[in-house]
Specification:
369 residues, mainly beta, Thrombin, subunit H, Pdz3 Domain, 2 domains, six-stranded antiparallel beta barrel, 5 helices
Length: 369
């Protein structure tokens, strides 16, 4: 259910329940697939919520009754799968990245995953593995492994699966890259259970505010074909580096309409590190509520500043219009929420604000939800 027109940026609500993802039966049994979460973009202007639901699976054994998070060893350095020739860029990306993309099967259906650490750590979408403690992992060469779900962040739709294997072909992650609108984008995954499927297109938009089960996220948009079963798979650049984890599509029918979304890989990797180490994941909070500005420059009109919040400490006032967050232009309150969610508590952001016709820059240290 979408929240009301006046949109609040609340702290995380660990008791909130996510919507269930739809499933269908694939053409060739016994494979099943887990359908991607579908977003109707026309409804996004109706509201915004901010909060992540975090799940962790304790290890098996006597300690399971008291252990609530899973700690694992620090990730190993990833082997180098590199593109060396761009005469056939999509084929080169496939050669480099296919060994690192896996198929994940649960009791509910199928999804995809990306090996990001050669010691057995796999990134995937949280909705692919949610509700499961173990999953079946099929490598690109057909090898099967039992994977243990270490945990996930539902609001960001990122989870980590671990398999008992070493020397795996880890993908190269573009953690510091500058993603450009219009650049080549290659999606790899298991749509409808068809593993090792490669599609290509471009990056259609960045910092795209998309509403999901727990509010708005800042996502990469692509027209590379993404279908049910691609969730958790890789979105890569022309060098074969992963730039995002595919999580959802906009579709009126359930199939590909050329509008897909991926979690930026830097955010996905940051969350994965916290999941693996067992660190608590806190939501960054600015502490305002507001609406989209209806006159003057586009932005987020501040309707309320929560007492004791980061916004109050920074000097944000009711009636301010936030037009930029940390260098990213925002069109409304949903964009502000999406940008805040890409950060952690304690991060200091520069907010461009219009007040009484004058523009100013305000620095705010984000609080914790």
């Amino acid at each position: 259910m979408l929240p009301p027109d006046t949109r609040v940026l609340p702290p995380v609500d660990p008791e909130s329940e996510p919507d269930s993802a739809p499933t269908t039966t694939p053409p060739a049994p016994p494979r099943k697939r887990l359908a991607s979460v579908l977003f109707v973009l026309g409804a996004l202007a109706a509201g915004v919520a901010l909060g992540w639901l975090i799940f962790t699976n304790p290890p098996a054994g006597p300690e399971a009754a008291t252990t609530t998070t899973v700690a694992a060893s620090a990730p190993e350095a990833a082997p180098t799968n590199e593109v060396v020739d761009n005469s056939e860029p999509v084929a080169d990306v496939a050669d480099a990245l296919l060994p690192s993309v896996v198929q994940i099967e649960t009791a509910a259906g199928l999804g995809s995953g990306v090996i990001y650490d050669s010691g057995g750590l796999i990134l995937t979408a949280a909705h692919v593995v949610e509700g499961s403690e173990t999953v079946s992992v099929r490598m690109s060469d057909g090898t099967q492994h039992t994977g243990r779900v270490l945990g996930g962040v539902v609001g960001a739709d990122i989870a980590v699966v671990e398999v008992d294997a070493t020397g795996l072909p880890a993908a190269s992650l573009d953690l510091d890259g500058d993603i450009r609108v219009g650049q080549l984008a290659v999606a790899i995954g298991s749509p409808y259970g068809l593993d090792s499927t490669v599609t290509s297109g471009v990056v259609s938009a960045v910092n795209q505010s998309v509403g999901g089960r727990n509010g708005f996220q800042s996502l990469i948009q692509t027209d590379a074909a993404i279908n049910p079963g691609n969730s958790g798979g890789a979105l890569a650049n022309r060098n074969g580096d992963v730039i995002g984890i595919n999580i959802s599509i906009f579709s009126a029918t359930g199939g590909n309409d050329g509008v897909g979304f991926a979690v930026p890989i830097d955010l996905a990797a940051d969350l994965a590190d916290s999941i693996v180490s067992g660190e608590p994941i806190s939501t960054a909070v600015l502490g305002i509520s507001g609406t989209d500005a209806e006159s003057g420059p586009s932005g987020a009109l501040v309707a309320e500043v929560q007492p004791g919040s980061a916004a109050e400490s920074a000097g944000i006032q009711i009636g301010d219009v936030i037009t930029e967050v940390d260098g990213v232009r925002v069109q409304g309150i949903g964009d502000v929420a999406a940008q805040i969610r890409t950060h952690r508590p304690g991060d200091v952001l520069d907010l461009v604000v219009r007040r009484a016709g004058a523009e100013m820059t305000i620095s705010a240290e984000l609080g914790s939800g």
